[in-house]
Amino acid sequence: MAATTSDEKLLGLWASPYTTRVQLALKLKSIEYEFIQENLQNKSELLLQTNPVHKKIPVFIHGDKPICESLIIIQYIDDTWTNGPSILPSDPYDRAMARFWAAYIDDKWFPLLKELGGAQGDEARASIVEKIFEGLVLLEEAFVKCSKGKALFGGDNVGYLDIALGCFLGWIKATEIMTGIKWLDETKIPGLVGWAERLCSDSSVKDVLPEAQKLVELYTMSAGLEKGVSN
Amino acid sequence: MAATTSDEKLLGLWASPYTTRVQLALKLKSIEYEFIQENLQNKSELLLQTNPVHKKIPVFIHGDKPICESLIIIQYIDDTWTNGPSILPSDPYDRAMARFWAAYIDDKWFPLLKELGGAQGDEARASIVEKIFEGLVLLEEAFVKCSKGKALFGGDNVGYLDIALGCFLGWIKATEIMTGIKWLDETKIPGLVGWAERLCSDSSVKDVLPEAQKLVELYTMSAGLEKGVSN
Fold it and tell me: How far apart are CA A224 and CA B59, in angstroms?
């Protein structure tokens, strides 16, 4: 490998929340890396070689080792750079809860937000909106339990669930602008609203999260980011 | 809690591969527990209370702490009973690879085996069969990489991926009986065929895996196990 290239590389897309996750973990651990913006319409050889199974971003390359899927990458970073702040909770039960809710967000909740864009008819749309709010109420309960009265899911510091859910804040705000629906409603989910404000003003987070207005512009320009963007 | 009840409980179903996973992890760690067979047609209050989000088995209850989803439970068991043999690899990259392939098995490969039962028409069936074999070839490559020339995915000992894939061996063999298709074909996937034989004769595994013939009988009796059985 040439001396000018970084030993840590991230193949991603600035607007992909799964890429944002890895960027947040790397920032928290103060890891320098080379960010390689992928073109999903014309995937690079490097992406196809490093993620031959799914052919999707993000891929984190550490030396000659590629790691795929955002939550797995975060755990790898936490396991490898152990001298930085911990991302996963240290208690096994807290860790299990963090993994449970991260899986809920990826498998159940965020897919609803993506579905909303393609919903046909008022009834279908209303049904998805209701499910999104039901999910937010569950996540509010999760926040109360996981944060144990502190500022963030991770307690006093940004942790696994702060990253797993926080990466979507740009898209949550973007869909608020596009749909006129206020997801982050203080009367419904006061804990999460406060959490989102605190997280977005955190020094490790605020420069990494993509701006909602830029995401709206991107969404308006394209047919969406579905193709080739994975978790 | 009454003195007669066990401090460790598992809510599950003998035929559920996800339940088998937890049973395998508990056996490996020599943990005694109470097994509570669930009736998915009439879910118990305990199940609904301990997994209110998904209402699915397996749920492992440690004292008053419920943990849901089989792979999360296994990691919890490994993190909690640290004096037993390790289930996850100790090296961060090996751990990431084990997590990657476990997710592939759950999200991509095993759903194909379930799809096969409901496939309509020869063409649809042939397409799924082809994808199942393609997946097995990928898993063969994963075995070669992860096992590093040793007997099992976990090396010399039963590990995370041995559990994650091994739990399906009963169903793999049951579908061989029902369809006449030989999935575990030495000419195609010699590494995995040898692995399956070694794993099934391991003392921690052989009494836990459900018998293929019993699964065939169950499948023939019921319309399948889809409803309420999660990962």
Answer: 37
Report the distance separating Cα A57 and Cα A197, nearest Å: 28
Work out whether strand B34-37 and strand A65-68 pair parallel, antiparallel, or are unpaired: unpaired
* 8 Å CB contact of B104 and A53: yes
Q: Give the number of other Cβ atoms within 10 Å of residue B45's Cβ.
A: 7
Q: Which band of pLDDT confidence, cut at 50, 70 and 90, is reported for residue B231?
A: low
Yes or no, beta carbons of A80 and B100 under 8 Å apart: no
Q: Are B156 and B104 in contact (CB under 8 A)?
A: no
| Cα–Cα distance for residue pair B138/B104, rounded to 1 Å | 10
3-state secondary structure of A86: coil
B123 contact partners, CB below 8 Å, separation of at least 6: none
State how far the Cα of A110 lies from the Cα of A124, in Å rounded to an integer. 17
Helices B122-147, B190-200: inter-axial angle, 10-degree rounding: 70
pLDDT tens readout for residues A63-109: 999 999 999 999 999 999 998 899 999 999 999 999 999 999 999 99
Does A80 contact B92 at a Cβ distance shorter than 8 Å? yes
Closest CA to B113 of B192, B2, B1, B224: B224
Q: Do A93 and B65 touch (CB under 8 A)?
A: yes
Cis peptide before B58 (omega within 30 of 0): yes
Q: Which pair of tokens denotes residue A47? A: 């992406």
- Dump pLDDT digits (tens) for B33-89: 999 999 999 999 999 999 999 999 999 999 999 999 999 999 999 999 998 899 999
Q: Where are the beta strands (DSSP E) in B25-184?
A: 34-37, 59-62, 65-68
β-pair partners for A57 = A229
Residues 58-87 of A with CB under 8 A from B: 62, 65, 67-69, 72-73, 75-76, 79-80
Q: Report the 10 Å Cβ neighbour count for B228.
A: 17
Amino acid code (one letter) for A180: G
Measured between beta carbons, the chain B residues lying within 8 angstroms of A95 are: 75-76, 79
Q: Quick one: which H or E segment has residue B80?
A: helix B70-80
- Two tokens at B2? 């009454």
User: How far apart are the CA of A72 and the nearest CA of chain B, in angstroms?
Assistant: 6
Q: How many CB atoms lie within 10 A of CB B130?
A: 11
Q: What pTM did the predictor assign? A: 0.93
Looking at residue B169, its amino acid is: L
Q: B136 with B128: CB under 8 angstroms?
A: no
